[in-house]
Fold:
Amino acid sequence: MLDQDPNSLARRTASLRRAGELAGGERPFALITVVRTEPATSARIGDRAIVFADGTLDGWVGGGCIGPTARREAIAALEEGMPRLVRVTPDTAASQPGVRMARMTCASEGTADLYVEPFLPRPTLIVAGDSPVAATLAAIAPPLGFRLLMLDAGTQLSLGEVPYPQDSWMVVATFGEFDEDAVEAGVRLGLPYVGLLASARRAGQVLSGLRARGLGDGELAVVRSPAGLPLGTSGQEGISLSIMAEISSLRAESRPSFSERQERESTGEPDEAVDPVCGMAVEVACARDIFEHGGTHYYFCCSGCRRAFEEEPEKYLAQVSIR
Structure:
């Protein structure tokens, strides 16, 4: 049953209002909604929170045991670009199709189902130049869902204009005018693709000039010339179509599949630790209570658990070994 407590209603309303303000903007975020619970848990059906790409959580979807899981799943949903249903439960063996299982480590042993919905900013197409191809790209990009940013010789490209560079794509269609400066700006901003419309000779000159400016071959690997897929088309419309097809293909490839992301997570550093005293999951990056024993760092949910461990570390390490 939906919690009608005025404070809870105010929290949910605030999260929805904030999500409405953020939607369609340039900052990626995920909206998490509690859709089901089993006692005992502090989460209530309808509780909501917003999680940003840096892990910042604004709102409420439960106590300290759920928070780290909510952050992790929100960031994963942003990477994948797909919503997900996550069950935080002490019984992760009882799996269900379409539901991701995450362990509840709190002593309360309740269950909470979280619906995690990512909101990503529109991809940005940066077009440098005022050539016919540039004009055609400017016409076809918005209907394909791209935010458009046009550059001329006097425009300075910055993170303020491109706040989400990992999904921003650049085409330099200046045909010899400020092409080296434009390509350099895109590369230094960390864009995944800088398409350069130029002859093979001119493209070589641009790349040589950029190497002289200190850019390495690894950085210049994002520069594509000739730009576009080989569709056999010609004219400004055909060239523009081939470029947008190439960008669309690269966007699809750059989004990690579930199996790839799972493999990356399994080989990376853990983002959670288990409090050896109470068994609670602790977010390593945000942990305040840390104690080193025998060359190993242990993380605690609170100072009380840390002090208890400091007094009798072997007692709690023995408990951990039999859990």
Notes: The chain is about 35% helix and 25% strand. Confidence is low (pLDDT under 50) at residues 257-269.
